[in-house]
Amino acid sequence: MYRFVFPWFCYSNFFSYCMTCAGTSSIDTTCTIWGLETGQVLGRVNLVTGHVKTQLIAHDKEVYDISFSRAGGGRDTFASVGANGSVRMFDLRHLKHSTIIYDDPQHHPLLRLCWNKQDPNYLATMAMDSLEVVILDVRVPCTPVARLNNHRACVNGIAWAPHSSCHICTAGRHFLQFFSDDPILAYTAEGQINNVQWASTQPDWIAICYNKFY
User: Fold this and answer.
1) Same domain, 47 and 60
2) More exposed terminus of the chain, fewer Cβ within 10 Å: N or C?
3) Tens digit of pLDDT for each residue in 31-70?
4) Are residues 172 and 142 in the same domain?
5) How many angstroms separate the first and last alpha carbons of the chain?
6) CA gap 62, 31 in Å, rounded
7) C-alpha closest to that of 125 among 138, 105, 110, 107
8) Extended beta strands in the chain, E state
């Protein structure tokens, strides 16, 4: 467990094929790539120490989410979103430059980012208080390839299928939807859905957290 000197609003995303590294995004406008070294086992708890491998200023405002691509072994390419309404793509081998993949037309803050687990050309993002999820193709920057807008309330979560490049799950305040080209399944929760995750090893299972439950 890490204890930070100042409170960070951060998300964590481990490299797909390099489990000794993780990335965090922060309200101080930076993304930090951490190197992790496993320490001794104390009961059932693994004590973990860490060192900062790389830190960069990713945006000019708060950074709300970070996601790594599986391209090239999942070690070097990641993207981030933040309060300035942009999606930026970085390469750890060339951190002096970044590529702007998308800018929200109204400059609304972008809260979540999720990279396709099977096809690294595609990723999804969503804006604050938005009813839609934007699908992007990194080969065609700044031009969404699709907008999923079947929700009747704000979208809070996104999860790509671990076993298919064509399926994505989106979570709204009370509604869970599964998309291929069109909505194919839906689930209504008893309270506001805050986030969703699709199990990597058991693709028939999806987890949600709503209200104070999960």
Assistant:
1) yes
2) N
3) 877 776 643 322 222 334 455 555 555 567 888 998 888 8
4) no
5) 22
6) 10
7) 110
8) 12-14, 21-25, 30-42, 45-57, 63-68, 77-82, 86-91, 98-103, 110-115, 122-127, 133-137, 146-148, 155-160, 168-172, 175-179, 183-188, 193-198, 206-210
Percent of the chain with pLDDT over 70: 73
Q: Verify that 16 and 94 share a domain, yes or no.
A: yes
3 with 57, same domain: the answer is yes
Closest CA to 82 of 96, 98, 70, 69: 98
Assess whether 203 and 116 both reside in one domain: no
What domain count does the chain have?
2
In sequence order, what are the residues at sequence separation of 6 or more whose Cβ sits closer than 8 angstroms to the Cβ of residue 207? 196, 197, 199, 214
**Domain that residue 176 falls in:** 150-214
pTM flag (> 0.90): no
Same-domain check for residues 79 and 50: yes
Tell me: do 154 and 208 sit in the same domain: yes
In 3-state terms, what secondary structure has residue 72?
Answer: helix
CATH number at residue 12: 2.130.10.10
Tell me the per-residue pLDDT of 130-184, one tens digit each, with 9 for 90 and over.
989 999 999 999 999 999 887 777 888 899 999 999 899 888 776 566 655 556 6
Same domain, 38 and 131: yes
Between CA 36 and CA 20 the distance in angstroms is: 5
The partner residues of 171 in beta bridges, in order of sequence, read 157, 176
Residues whose CB falls within 8 Å of the CB of residue 89, separated by 6 or more in sequence, listed in order = 77, 78, 79, 98, 99, 100, 101, 138
